[in-house]
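Translate sequence into structure tokens.
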Amino acid sequence: MRSSFVTALCLATTVTVAATGCGATVEAGGGGPASSVTLTNCGKKVTYDKVPERVVTNDVGITELMFALGLEDRMAGFAMPDDKGDLNGVPWKGGYDKVAWLSKDQLTKENVLDARGDFVFAGWNYGFREEAGFTPQALKKLGIPSYVLTESCRNGRTDTSRGIMPPLEALYTDLTNLGKLFGVEKRAASLVAEFKEEVAAVRAEAPRGAERPKVFLYDSGEEQPFTSGRFAAPEQIISEAGGVNVMHDVADSWTTVGWESVVERDPDVIVVCDYGDVSAERKRKFLLSYGPLRNVSAVKDRRIFVLDYVDLVESPRNPSAIARLGTYLRGVSGGGAEGGRGER
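Result follows.
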């Protein structure tokens, strides 16, 4: 996401936000939200009795949703591995400088209690997990309310399958809900409108019909690839950019598939998710040298495009990722473009 966007947003919201700079938490004239706020989260009505003052978040995308809304003053800290890229040049560097980095692993109840957290914003497989006993229900017993990232909501198809709405709708839903909860509804609406405008501009120039390249999202894994079905952010990052997610039929967000299904669907482009101990360059070399993929179009034409992890999970960086991938896919549909990296 361009840093100039954040500057513009600060200027645009000056008349609606009563605070110094771009870290406002309560809009002028409204006095904040009512004493209790009811939201729909993962298909269920949830009532919050007060505005949280010490929010604890898990992972980079969730944390940056708070920063994008100017809510760093409402945060007690975040948990996040240190493998999510350079945070120095991001639009929300001020938030990272201000808010405590509690853990370089997933959140635990101990993290939350030590930080005196009064609210947890996390997601299934983005912090919440039954095996560790870190769930919304467990936190409720401690008197700590929570909010579940909409991209991660479980959909009932299996015990763990996730995703209940299109990915960008999930992003807009969370921004709108958080705006209501924290009394920054106009700021949230401005963000959603800006994101929709940015995505629409890419869509207007995107390849159409038979010219739309087929795209496979490669997260990790050598024996079996970990990828994105139709409920994770890459689905609409790919489709709005002008491509077709070859795993669209998978009714899950992030999941494992077989290499044979990748070969059968013959993607024109592979998008690599850059994070973790295995570098994007190492992933690229594996894909180009892995025997079963030798006749896949993306491998033969060396069309492997890299995006950061935070670009590809629900986050305020999704629209920027769409724009960058859109530029690349237009080159592919025109008969050009070799692999590259989508810079911020």
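Note: The radius of gyration is 20 Å.
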